Amino acid sequence: VRPRTKKIYVAVCWSEKALKESDLEQLRSLKDLEILQKTPIRVLHRRAPAVRPRTLHWAEAKLINPHYLTVRLCTQAGMYIKEFVHGDLGRTRPSLKELLGSSGATEILQLDVEGVGSDKMAEQAGQT
Question: Which residues pair with 16 in a beta bridge?
């Protein structure tokens, strides 16, 4: 049995909704949330249509200003991060857009992989 690989991402995002610190609290409190992702529209031409459950292990978020934020996510490997942020027209649930309580657009502007590794790596990274 292969150990489950975790990845840590850092993303800069934009929200049409003006955000407050209180909007980020629910996101920060999430632990091991199951995300259901249908095959993203952008890869449907090369991947079989399926629903893939993935785990969001934890999330950190900081406001840059009311419409811009940085998010740091620890996820199960294989999660489509861009689609998690904007929801992919409802194909990823819940999405960051939903978790922020936004009815408007939420977009990803920059995405970086901060780390790939084991449970221990992910736990240590989440303590910062």
Answer: none
Residue of 5 and 92 predicted with greater confidence: 92
* Average pLDDT score, the chain: 92
- Asked if residue 53 has a cis previous peptide bond (ω within 30° of 0), the answer is no
Q: What is the pLDDT of residue 1?
A: 44
Q: What is the secondary structure of the chain as a DSSP string?
A: -PPPPEEEEEEEEEESSPP-HHHHHHHHH--SEEEEEEPPGGGTTTS---EEEEEEEEEEEEEEETTEEEEEEEEETT--HHHHHH-TTTTEES-HHHHTT-SS-EEEEEEEEEEEE-HHHHHHHTT-
Q: Is the pLDDT of residue 122 over 80?
A: no
* C-alpha separations of 39 from 67, 79, 89 in Å: 28, 10, 12
Give the contacts of 86 (CB within 8 A, at least 6 positions apart).
95, 96, 97, 105, 106, 107, 108
pTM listed for this prediction? 0.89
Rounded CA separation 45/111 (Å):
23
